[in-house]
What we know:
Elements (H helix, E strand, L loop, with lengths): L1 E8 L1 H4 L18 E6 L5 E5 L12 H13 L8 E3 L2 H7 L15 E3 H9 L4 H11 L3 H14 L22 H14 L11 E4 L2 E4 L4 H4 L3 E9 L3 E10 L2 E10 L2 H18 E7 L4 E8 L5 E5 L4 E6 L7 E8 L1 E2 L7 E8 L6 E7 L8 H14 L3
Parallel strand pairs: 12-16
Antiparallel strand pairs: 1-15, 2-3, 2-10, 4-5, 6-7, 8-9, 9-10, 11-14, 12-13, 13-18, 15-17, 17-18
Helix pairs in contact: 3-5, 4-5, 5-6
Amino acid sequence: MTSKSQKLLFGTVLSGFLFASLQAGAIETKARNMILMDYDTGQYLYTKDADKKIPPASMSKLMTVYIIFSKLKDGSLSLDDTFTVSENAWRKGGAASGGSTMFLAINDKVRVEDLIKGIIIQSGNDACIVAAENISSSEEDFADLMNEKAKELGLKNSYFVNSTGLPHPDHRMSAEDLAHLARILISEFPEYYHLFSQKEFVYHNIRQGNRNPLLYSMPSADGLKTGHTEEAGFCLTASAKKGKRRLIGVFTGLNSNKERSEETERLMNWGFREFDNYTIVKQGTKIATMPVWFGQADSVDMVVEKDVVRTMKKNKSDKVELTAVYDKPVKAPIKKGQQLGYLKAEVPGSDTVEIPLVAANDVAKVGLWGRICKNFKYLLFGAE
């Protein structure tokens, strides 16, 4: 077989779209660690030490919430199930501990739905420990479950010691992992995601507001979780949606609640203003034709299976260069959707994407007599 690279310049279709080196020329940030991600494409608009292991403070409660949501989804928990508050949960996570609390009392029977709200809205350490002890036999065992799930989800720089994010030298996450976890929470649990935008919750006649400052200053914001310890600084894992676009941002190490609010809103708005999503190849677009050996058809079209959408800087006129890369010919039988090559999309100085090229339709294999005829034709005339 011979290797084939066919360059295709779709100037009229792709003019004005630029792949990212998305960070080039980006603005500065006061955040110690930071990532801004497009939700749909997963592309990073801006990063700053995003893969560094850092104390995540209460942002690590997102993993506790992920486990609860997963158990609701698989049916092993329901929102109406009740958990019992232990003395340990009350002492370690209650008001006397000095941290954020849902103000649970020893031996309270608490509905799972209320615990979720206590974790998300009130950032209750006591609510996290109650959930951990009732889902697993202890908070330590629950931390093992958190680490197991983190590995399954591909969170490369996360390690959990507790369910709360209370300070511990080994309890670490990266801004990148937090962004990916936020993206998973939004995509996998749409029926519960609205809880992150709820501004207040009352339990034991105590009204507490959501600590996420963007919910009050940025109309498009709808999640996710704040964090604060002396070591971590003021932190926020945030998400906002404008029109069809959603951005996820993680910001750590800020100096005050005011700075956290202003910096996150400024950078989220920058992401919406400077970038947009563009379809560079439509689903089903014929990219090239592949010759077929011993098939009932002599060739098969290669297409992309789904729209290829990329996040790009606005107002750029550079063309995206598309190159079809494949070995030819291919031997029948061929199944519709079978990968036959890939489409390389690139712009000098920016990232390159490889998109699978698949068969547009089935091509059946010819019978014995057909193969004899095709071999005879090949001997007489050679390959086309």
